[in-house]
Amino acid sequence: MDELVNKLVKGKIGFHDVQKFTSPAEAVEVRRRSLEQLTNNKLEHIGKYSIDLGFATNRNIDNPIGVTQVPLGIAGPVKLNGEYAKGSFYVPLATTEGALVASVNRGMRAISESGGCSVRILHEGMTRAPLFKVRNVSEAVKLRDWANSNFYKLKELMEEDKFLKLKEVQPFITGRHLFLRFVCDTSDAMGMNMITIGLQRVVEFIEKENRGARCIALSGNMCTDKKPSAVNFILGRGRSVTADVAIPKKIVDKVLKTTPKKIVEVNYGKNFIGSAMAGVLGGFNAHVANPIAALYIACGQDPAQIMNSAMAITSAEEEGDGVYFSIFMPSIESGALGGGMNLPTQKEALQILGCYGPGEPAGNNARKFSEIACATALAGEISLISALAAGQLARAHDRLGRGKG
């Protein structure tokens, strides 16, 4: 091991080359010890972990040296009246923002004491949009029509993976460029890898059958992956989910410490006028990215998918003597197996939710997770909007010790 450390420090081998000379598990220690020498830092805590980095090498991480640990909290229980998430759930949240779990927990309390929130999936389908370049507009239209006529052949090629189902192909043309947005059911997986692999077969068939058609990018940004976009907001990506709850005045008074009228005023002024004035991309909400990021990190979702998953519209209206809250999230991109979800701590977090692994029937665990994610975001919105309405935001952060040395 010492010899490998010396070679790496002297630049005779690269970080990625280490595993050619030793086991994946030992390679982790070689890299870390080398980095300690190269940076003159003792990496004591990065080297303490329980997960098997040998297993994770090349499956979840390249050139591993250890782990970054993020504090994990629990919020709830929150009562959900969903199609797939029914009952009360404790929700794990990984974050370094101390006030976040407490805030989400308060929103969950308000939801539960109001009888729970209803959650419904409106649309589902993960997408990938390869970009084809042809000679001119006429050829682009011809290729679009060919793709429509040969849908079932494309479907057959995509579905060589039994967990992947092609639902539709959405064409978009601009000049000589044709985007084919493939919309797929990916069962309990988030599904980007299986779609990409399936599309490689499809693209090769399209190019073979259409002389002059050339795929210049397997992903042409009409998907749209890991970027907030209008196409995802309008057509959906992953799962489009909505949730609502009516909170009686007595619970607004007791739990949220404000009034329905102030809540509605803040939500309208902040989430609608403020967002419009700022030209916010990705929706009209207070901080949906906050609880979604914490949930995704805890449960092994791809953190980059927060870009789309946190798009949302939060609305609040007076109803009777209370307040009606709703949230619409058009592009929750998540899964229940695969990727980081198979790592042990992330797996345990999903098991807390009852969402790990293949559902019965297939896809139900991923659907359950998306409903829980939407309800968690709603809880965060309820609490933050109420804190602003009550003038409690700064006091809450100060009381919980944030910013203190």
Euclidean distance between termini CA atoms? 40 Å
**Uncertain ranges:** none
**How does the overall form come out from the CA principal axes?**
globular
Structural class: alpha+beta
Residues in β-strands, percent: 15-25%
The CATH superfamily of the largest domain is known as: 3-hydroxy-3-methylglutaryl-coenzyme A Reductase, Chain A, domain 2
Number of domains: 3
Number of strands: 11
CATH topology grouping of the largest domain: 3-hydroxy-3-methylglutaryl-coenzyme A Reductase, Chain A, domain 2
Mean pLDDT: 94
CATH architect. name of the largest domain:
Alpha-Beta Complex
- Sheet with most strands: 11 strands, mixed
Q: What is the CATH level 1 assignment of the largest domain? A: Alpha Beta
Q: How would you explain this protein's 3D organization?
A:
This protein has 405 residues and is α+β, with helices and mostly antiparallel strands. The chain folds into three domains: 2-56, no CATH class; 72-123 and 242-399, 3-hydroxy-3-methylglutaryl-coenzyme A Reductase, Chain A, domain 2, CATH 3.90.770; 130-217, Alpha-Beta Plaits, CATH 3.30.70. 43% of the residues lie in helices and 22% in strands. It contains 15 helices and eleven strands. The chain has helices spanning 2-9, 24-39, 53-56, 98-113, 137-149, 151-158, 192-209, 230-235, 249-256, 260-278, 289-298, 306-309, 344-353, 364-390, 393-399, and strands at 72-82, 86-94, 117-128, 131-133, 165-174, 177-185, 214-217, 238-247, 283-284, 312-319, 322-332. Strands 1, 2, 3, 4, 5, 6, 7, 8, 9, 10 and 11 form an eleven-stranded mixed β-sheet that branches. Strand 5 and strand 6 form a beta hairpin. Helix 1 packs across helix 2, helix 4 (98-113) packs across helix 14 (364-390) and helix 10 (260-278) crosses helix 14 (364-390). The protein is globular, with a radius of gyration of 24 Å.
